[in-house]
Design a protein that fits this description.
CATH superfamily: Homeodomain-like
Radius of gyration: 16 Å
CATH topology: Arc Repressor Mutant, subunit A
Distance between the termini: 40 Å
Number of helices: 7
CATH class: Mainly Alpha
Strand content: 5-15%
Low-confidence stretches: 120-138
Number of strands: 2
CATH architecture: Orthogonal Bundle
Helix content: 55-70%
Structural class: mainly alpha
Largest sheet: 2 strands, antiparallel
Amino acid sequence: MNNNSVVKKVVDYIETNINEDLSLDKIASALNYSKFYIARVFSEETKCTVYKYIQGRRLTLAAQKLVETEQPIVDIAYESHYDSQQAFTLAFKQLYKCTPNIYRKNGVFYPKQSKICMTSSFTGSSFTNYLAGGKLAA
């Protein structure tokens, strides 16, 4: 099995279970791989750690909710697996360079961490494609 298919399985598992508690141990157990193997292969292929990918995806989904719903920020924070609105705001600000409240007022969604799609090779080499979704900023 090549590294691309391992990463694809990891990404598919994460995307399917993004609203659940996700740890490297849980992912490795579900996919029957060593957590060390998954961490190494994922990082080599995507130039991103599994944890950072999960965090980025959750914050991107939160950003989308901020723009598209009137849901309270604290509820979005808890749904994004943050223990407090303060922790959520800090992480959100690091990624989006503004607070969730300001982001909501701006009203334009732009994904920072889109789903990673691993595709097979056409000429023996592989490539990673990042999909974007939602309303994009100009």
